[in-house]
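As promised in the previous annual report, we have extended the structural survey to additional targets. Below is the entry for GntR family transcriptional repressor for pyruvate dehydrogenase complex.
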Amino acid sequence: MSEVARPTLSDALTERMLELIRTGGHRPGDRLPSTRELSQRFAVTTPTLREALRRLEATGAIEMRHGSGIYVGAAIERLVLPNPNMREIHAVQLLELLDARIVIEPPLAAMAAERAGQEELAPLKQVLDEAGRHLRGEDAELHDANMTFHRATARLAGNSVLHEVVDSLLTVHGPEQREILQIFDDRRRDYEEHVAILAAIEARDAARAEELMRSHLADVKTVIEHRMRSPR
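The corresponding structure token record, generated without further manual editing, is:
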């Protein structure tokens, strides 16, 4: 039977840093003490402290800004975190990624239609306006706008955990999402389907919003499966 791994000094320091953030009432964006102050506070060497800081930065709990300092990260309050060690995935996993999105995102589109107010929908319109300006080969900008649309739709559903799940899927598999755009290769249709989803949400037609989101993602998956079987 293998010996249970003992917490290292870096492990303990990581926990103490998190406790400092929690008990100090720090919020995302708040500046933390300098590395020198933290080293003195916790009575550790600078290299040991930096190792703990790197761990916290990898999960988004803190943000280290060169020449500025250490700040509380936006992910400090998240329940679901993307795996920072994940690199590339295989074709089967790419399809599984879409399967996961097909299960999760359509009900969230329905919830957004039921709950989102008109003021909350304004950013979605702006995102689609941005996407519409990048349909002629500006794929980096188009990809960012598309992912922002899906993230924002999930956020408007009002369930922070499910929003974090969607955000994590899109964040960890960013390169694969860009590959999907390349394989699908119908930017205009993709854009028009997003516009139709937004129209259903604006009309508070939950069933239609769910149907359109499911059809949209399933359509993308079907095209990708076909292209993978018959590479160009």
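Residues 56 and 221 are 35 Å apart (CA to CA). Residues 91-115 form the longest helix (25 residues). These points will be discussed at the next consortium meeting with the crystallography subgroup.
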